[in-house]
Amino acid sequence: MYDVKSMKAEEFISDEEIKATLQYADENKDNMEVVDAIIAKAKLGKGLTHREASVLLACDNEEKLQEIYDLARQIKEDYYGNRIVLFAPLYLSNYCVNGCLYCPYHLKNKHISRKKLTQDEIRKEVIALQDMGHKRLAIELGEDPVNNPIEYVLESINTIYNIKHKNGAIRRVNVNIAATTVENYKKLHDAGIGTYILFQETYNKEAYEKLHPTGPKHDYAYHTEAMDRAQAGGIDDVGLGVLFGLEMYRYEFAGILMHAEHLEAVHGVGPHTISVPRVKKADDIDPEAFDNGISDEIFEKIIALIRVAVPYTGMIISTREGKAVREKALELGISQISGASRTSVGGYAEEEPEDDNSAQFDVSDQRTLDEVISWLINLGYVPSFCTACYREGRTGDRFMSLCKSKQILNCCHPNALMTLKEYLEDYASEETRAKGMAMIAEELKKIPNEKVRKIAAEHIADISKGKRD
Ligand code: SAM
Which stretches within 143-241 are classed as H helix? Predict the structure, then answer.
């Protein structure tokens, strides 16, 4: 049974409906009349259903693929402009009671060093991140009710928001912790978190249960219904993701779009972000052990099609991917990236010792934040550290309506320029600063509203004089 508004995971992510979708996609992928009609609908910039997008994913006509890529670029430009938001993950604890087969934190892994940061150590990590120029973090923890209770998470968030160091503070803390109760989501909401992120890993219930054989994460329904509980707890920015490589990508693709449709239908707002992680090598984990790894080409196609199917949803790519893949992904739809990430507990303040194996996975993009910023500028993207929407209460449907009305150039773009200016003044190398200043001068001219343009120019001049937000 398929019921998009049902609150039961097995109904809004119906296995039957996904299988019917894959069959529909196979039956129509070579029917150019159907494919063209779907592309024409996508060009309206209002998204596609999971069935329509799945037909395009199955279609392997080169010409149509080019059309889809061009459209993905256009949609990204229309809704997100050329700015790219930056963040860093902060690993607080790798204690975990789950048995996830793909994750080195799994309980049975006895040779990984287990660490949990004290509040003092968190301060050191955050200061190291601030010294690079970061303003937006995603905190990451394993699931362990004894070692990582919600009180620890709340205390850590409070610590992070209250560190005033040199040129400002961390302005947005996103949270990636295991599925929890409505009461705990309320507490996270009250602590002022940004987005609540939870990857589904796989939407295929049977595979999910095998991949999570033990621990609280084994419960497919509890995990899949987490975003509904988060909404019930008052969190209206939620971030979805699947871990590509675990299961068949076409199944996951239909599943994640159905999840987005469900959130929109029930809560009036779709996911704030969608992440696209791929399984990586890690301590005790060999990605080859999973049969469903996807090529870079399929990965790019998925990114472009998510962009086209849910135009208003931000898309995130992490340092699991290297420079070349990230470059292509940025073109096709990604709007947020992490930079200079460490996936070990305590990895920012101190260089990881050779024998430290506390990292969650191998990082492919190992560049410094300054190198990442310089690269973005070279590619014509405006690196943004902006958190204004969140701080001014533009979350959930209020953010979405801003995005839908394409107010980017008058709102996000000037804010991006101001935060880039702060970064250039406070943290950048000389070379990056020179390039960035030239970019700001050019980009200011693109702000259509004269009044907004003037205000942005004034703020930018104030930043040169030492004023900070
Ligand atoms: N413990 C939390 C949970 O259960 O959702 C989330 C935190 S975990 C640090 C963040 C994500 O890392 C997981 O949801 C998973 O998708 C991803 N991950 C785990 N092992 C990985 C691996 N070997 N390669 C790439 N990503 C991995």
Answer: 150-161, 182-190, 205-211, 220-224, 226-232
Is residue 177 in contact with ligand 1, taking CB distance under 6 Å?
Answer: yes
Alpha carbon distance 415, 418 (integer Å): 5
Whole-angstrom distance, CA of residue 381 vs CA of residue 65: 24
Model-level pTM? 0.96
d(CA 138, CA 247): 26
Torsion of CA 354, 356, 357, 360, to 10 degrees: -110
Q: Residue 179: CB within 6 Å of ligand 1?
A: no
The predicted-structure confidence for 299-327, as pLDDT tens digits, reads as follows 999 999 999 999 999 999 999 999 999 99
Q: Which residue is it, tokens 């599943």?
A: 255
Mutate to test the pocket of ligand 1, among 275, 360, 364 (most ligand atoms within 8 A of CB): 360
* Atom 21 (ligand 1) nearest CA: 103
Please say whether the beta carbons of 42 and 21 come within 8 A: no
Q: Going by C-beta distance under 8 Å and a sequence separation of 6 or more, which residues neighbour residue 46? A: 311
Does the beta carbon of 142 sit less than 6 angstroms from any atom of ligand 1? yes
d(CA 409, CA 79): 9
Q: What are the pLDDT digits (tens) for 233-281? A: 999 999 999 999 999 999 999 999 999 999 999 999 999 999 999 999 8
Give pairs for 153-159: CB < 8 Å, separation 24+.
Answer: 153/92, 153/177, 153/188, 154/187, 154/188, 154/191, 155/119, 156/92, 156/117, 156/119, 156/122, 157/188, 157/191, 157/192, 157/193, 158/191, 159/119, 159/122, 159/123, 159/126
Regarding an ipTM greater than 0.95, the answer is yes
Question: What is the spatial distance between Cα 209 and Cα 199, in angstroms, rounded to a whole number?
Answer: 15
Q: What is the largest CA-CA distance in the chain?
A: 63
Distance 296 CA to ligand 1 centre (A): 20
pLDDT of residue 291: 81
